[in-house]
Structures are given as structure tokens and as C-alpha cells.
Amino acid sequence: MSIAGKHVIMDLIESWPDSVLVILRTNQELIKQYLDEEKRVELLGREDIEIRYFPPLNPHKQQYLEVDQVINEILMGQSFVGFHATRLTQSEISNIIRDGLQPLTPELVKEKAGILLRDNYISASEAELIIQNNSSQEENREKMVWLFHCISTLKDRGSLINLFSYWGGEAIYRHFQGDLYSSPDLKQIGQPCIVVCSLPGAEMESIQTISDRMIRYWSSLQSLEPHSCEFDHFVKHTVEVIEIISIG
């Protein structure tokens, strides 16, 4: 991808800062010892409830946290790629490239339905159905932009098939699935698109630090049991768009 080198992609090691890779290689044995001990205690805790609630101190924890902190400080100064899978019309593609990816609100749903009506994708009554039947005010959706950060997720058909098949995103299409809904036909609107976004490292934080996620992913690649990269989260503001990849 042409953006590699300017942005960090979670599961594209070639895009990671050289300084981070040097730290990881230098501390490879420490990282392995820490994660092996975490795994050992976690397995014991499955059988022993006392260990589950009162795990023994990992003797490598302090050193691991120091490595994690150094890497995290580097990553805070980086830009990260975020992906948003959806189905868009050409007008929507132009608007998103110009204005960025907007947080979900009832006003945005109304605006999107209005664009479809203007461009003759739906009737006025169908536009009203969309405006009245959506999840834009749900607690885990309103004023949010949801993104995922791993290329491997793009290969997960089960997670993305509906996002690519139905216009409007999950907040809309879930209200129009099934035999009860013949109109509007959201499968006939727009085309599958991957919206490639840019986020500063400081906005990549979640319950688990971004550095810890990346350390664990990198460490798994050094073993015989590499695990997939899975990370999605939300931000509550307009997101900068690098490009939109459509099916064509």
C-alpha cells in the first residue's frame, strides 16, 4: 500500500517504526518470558479460582512495563491506519473524500436518506422509513465512528459480508433485513467500499494500550502459533480519509 511508511498498519510489520522493531528484537527474550508466565497463570486460573482472582506476581512484569512504555511513547507520535467497511453511492464517496468520515447521528441518517432521494435511489416514503427506522441514537453508536485496524479483518467474510452487501451500515440495514422488508432494497444501492482513514497514535488508546497489542502480535509471529490481529474501536469526531477503495 502506498500509505505504508507514512502510517502504521497494525498487522503490517513493514510499516512499524524501525525504532520500535529494534526495541522488540533487543527485548525478545524478556517479552517471551513475561507472556509465557501470563499464559501459564491464566491456564492455572481456569482450574483454580483462587489463582484466577489472586494471581501470583509475574517476575518479569516491571521490565515488560518499561519496554511497553518506551514503545508507547514512540507510537503516540505516529499516525495509524483505520479501515471502515461500508456500501456507498458515488455522491457519498465524493462527500466523504471532501468532508471526512462523519460520526453517526440522526441528522447524518436524514442527510444520507436525502441524498438517496435526490439521486433517485429511493422514494420519499422509503426515505422516511429509513429516517424513522435506524439505530443512530443507540448508546454504542450515536456520535461514533467505528474503525478496525488490521488488514486481516478484510479477509473475514463473516464480519464484513453484510457491511458490503447492504447500504447504510449496521445502524440502518439491520432494520431492513428479512422477508418482512421488500422496500427499500438496500442491496441495490451503492457499491462495496473500504474507507481508509488516518488517526493519530494518541487516539488509538483503549482498555489495552496500543503498544501492548502490538508487542503481543509481534511476539506471536515469532512463535509456532501466530495469532490474528483483531482490533476495532471508535472515536467521537470526524475522521480524516486517505482514500476510498471501491470494488472497481
What does the model show?
By secondary structure, the protein is an alpha+beta fold. The chain contains ten helices and five strands; from the N terminus they run ααααβαααβααβαββ. The chain has a three-stranded antiparallel beta sheet with strand order 1-3-5. A two-stranded antiparallel sheet has the order 2-4. Helix 1 runs antiparallel to helix 4. The longest helix is centred in the N-terminal third of the chain and has 20 residues, at 28-47. It is elongated. The model has no long low-confidence stretch (mean pLDDT 91).
Count every beta strand, where a strand is a DSSP E run of 2 or more residues: 5
Distance from N terminus to C terminus (CA atoms, Å) equals: 17 Å
The strand order across the widest sheet is 1-3-5
Rounded to the nearest angstrom, the radius of gyration is 22 Å
**What are the low-pLDDT stretches, counting only 5+ consecutive residues below 50?**
none
The coarse overall form would be: elongated
Helix content: 40-55%
Helix/sheet category: alpha+beta
Largest sheet: 3 strands, antiparallel
Q: Tell me the strand percentage band.
A: 5-15%
Order of helices and strands: HHHHEHHHEHHEHEE
DSSP helical segment count? 10
Query: How confident overall, as mean pLDDT?
Result: 91
